[in-house]
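Wed. Picked up where I left off yesterday with L-arabinose isomerase. The coffee machine is broken again, so keeping this brief.
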Amino acid sequence: MTSAAPVATESGVPLRKPRIGLLGIMQALYDHMIPGITERQSGYAREIADRLADVADWTVGRPVKDRTDAEEVMREFVNADLDGVMVVLLTYGPAMRVARLFNENRLPVLLANIQPEPQVTAAWDMADMTYNQGIHGAQDTANAMVRADRSFEVITDDWRAPEFAERVDRWARSARAITAWKSLKVGIFGYAMNDMGDIRVDENALLRALGPEISFVAPGDLYRGSLEVPGAEVDALIAWENARFEVDPDLTAAEREDHARMQLAIEKILVERGYRAYSTHFDAIGEDGRFRRLPLAAASSLMAKGYGYGAEGDALAAAMVYAGHQLIGEGHFTEMYAMDFPSDSILMSHMGEGNWRVARDDEPVRLIHRELGIGRLEAPPTFLFRYRPGPATLACLVSLGGERFRLVVAEGEVLDAAPLPQLEMPYGQFRPDSGVRACMDGWLAAGGPHHQVLNVGRHAEDWRVFCRSSGIEFVQV
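Structure written out below (tokens, as returned):
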């Protein structure tokens, strides 16, 4: 049997550009006042898209002037499988023409409060006033969306300014992540860890409110799949690892083959069943009775390929790692292990799963032989690396009951700290900008769970926009 799962590659999975529609709103009244205004403002809309070509792939709709036009263009955007819609008032346009549209719309929306010219001058006549009068149309349209209780983002700026492109880029990436979440399937191999409360969620509420769907995979599917992986694919993965990583000579051939077969079997299941995130709980693997070791290294390399991952059956963490990939790139699963008060930092790590793309650049990533009693199985090959020093952001999703969710975020810095030679798993020391005491007080008060996604860089504002556009409460600590 031939496996459908591709062998890991150095490039991973590149993120595509966000796909965004530009909905330009006008009204027919001005056609009689200023002949040619529709063509002129339509050109303005195309100029905006051209200027933002590096930010997204744009679909510019024809200017809409009534309810029928607007709803037809929006249907075209939905049918084109776009990630979101940027609304631009090309002139004033009464909101009642789009009120029902935005009440029913489910695509992320950005209301760009912009105008063709950045400055009012003495040369302006009535035509110039009309070309640049989108501001009160934006007010009317925003009022309609607020009344409809729809989440949306707003940007007011000179559309030629670099800051405008930066803010549109942030929103477009959040729209891409939100859209990806709406079709996300999370596969849980076995079951979630018993008695671990902060990973629990009402699966129906999560699906209704945000989109991720949780389903469970029999460990037997993984066992049978690992037996069916062709030997040539096993050899290819091992050869790739030999070329890419520093491989521990103590690793046995049996350990390498077991690991490779489990990774390839997991990915084959993910590909064939449409999962973009997953979890393997050590008890579910250990208690099955057919496995020799845990698939820890598999989680590291599959995260590096763009899959979401959460340990112990944590679907919320798996979904967050996937969102971290889509919003920012290089999502990394981790948890807070211990506080170090002298350095005002927190030791971050997990049992052995970690995205090696966040490893520091001046040390090799090692694939090691490692004795591990958890799961009561044999030694699992594990990637060992230290996190890259520099700015970093932690984020986690809190289920508040029903369809209410909260996202807790902390910005800070991964310290260039001394190695911890006894640790045989990925690790780093994260110093929150607010300090350990204030950060942890806020984290616990907000109900932040113990599994997180870490991204390199400062990205609280990215997560804030993601929350505003998806109706999630945002808390920064």
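Quick read: Residues 1-11 have pLDDT under 50 and may be disordered.
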